[in-house]
Write a structure and sequence with these properties.
Zincin-like; 124 residues; alpha+beta; 6 helices; globular; 3-stranded mixed β-sheet
C-alpha cells in the first residue's frame, strides 16, 4: 500500500488527464473528474458488478449515445476511487501509473467503448 493525501492524489488525476493524447483530450467536454474514497452501492449497480473492487466509474451518457436533445446538461463525471487504488500501489511511480490507467479506462467509457471492447483490443 502506498498512501498519499487527497490533494496529492487529485494532482495525479489531473496529470493523467493532461497526459492524455491530444486527439482524446481535445474532444472531452462537459466532463468533471472527481476523487472519492470508495465506490457506493449505486456505483456497483451502475456497472453491474456484484463482487470485486471498483477503481473508478464513469457516471454519465457516453458520446456515442448522446442525441440531439443532449444540451445544457450537467457535466458527466469520472470518479476515481482513492482507497482501493492506494491499496494496490507499491510506490509513488506505481500509484501514478495505476491512476493513469484508471483515468484512461474511464475516458474510454466516456467515448462509448465498452469493457468487452477494451478486452478485445487488449487495453485492460
Amino acid at each position: 500500500m502506498y498512501k498519499v493525501d487527497r490533494e496529492t492524489f487529485e494532482g495525479l488525476v489531473t496529470s493523467a488527464v493532461v497526459d492524455l493524447p491530444d486527439t482524446f483530450r481535445d474532444r472531452v467536454a462537459n466532463l468533471d473528474f472527481v476523487v472519492e474514497d470508495l465506490a457506493s452501492r449505486d456505483d456497483y449497480a451502475r456497472v453491474g458488478v456484484s463482487g470485486g473492487t471498483l477503481l473508478g466509474v464513469y457516471r454519465g451518457i457516453p458520446l456515442t449515445r448522446r442525441g440531439r436533445g443532449y444540451h445544457m446538461a450537467l457535466p458527466d463525471r469520472i470518479v476515481i476511487f482513492q482507497q482501493p487504488i492506494q491499496s494496490l500501489a507499491r510506490s509513488a511511480a506505481d500509484l501514478s501509473e495505476r491512476v493513469s490507467h484508471v483515468v484512461r479506462h474511464e475516458i474510454a467509457h466516456y467515448f462509448g467503448i465498452s469493457d468487452e471492447r477494451l478486452r478485445e483490443i487488449d487495453a485492460y
